[in-house]
Design goal:
Length: about 150
Amino acid sequence: MRRKSRKRTARLVTPAAAWAVPRRHGPPVAVDLAIVCAVALAWGSLWLAGQWAESAIAADARFQQAFAAIDCTPPPGQSRTDFLDDVQYLSLLPDRISLLDRELRQRLSHAFALHPDVETVESITIETSGRIQVELRYRSNAGTTRV
């Protein structure tokens, strides 16, 4: 018996076939799009839940401090209560401030800097117990006084 020989022929690739997009062997594009949408929806839901939880916790009285309870030394000739009332009035801050506010230091620094007797805000310390301490430098006629 004689075997038939098979001739191998070279396939010519046309220029159009060289640039053709190969066939996709995975799931269809619609499945990929559905997966991306599901992940985006899950991420968005978690983000919204986190925002809701943060606002609910921030409204809790345990995480708020009365503005009048801020610890600071008032300028000479003024009581601490009157000084804090002036600072609160000038800065339009509410009676209670949230300790969870991410910008609380900046808000307080700006609020105290608005008072005409304050030269600079030296430091603001917010302790885990909820105590807020503000160190200020006051203006005076004969130079500056650090308190």
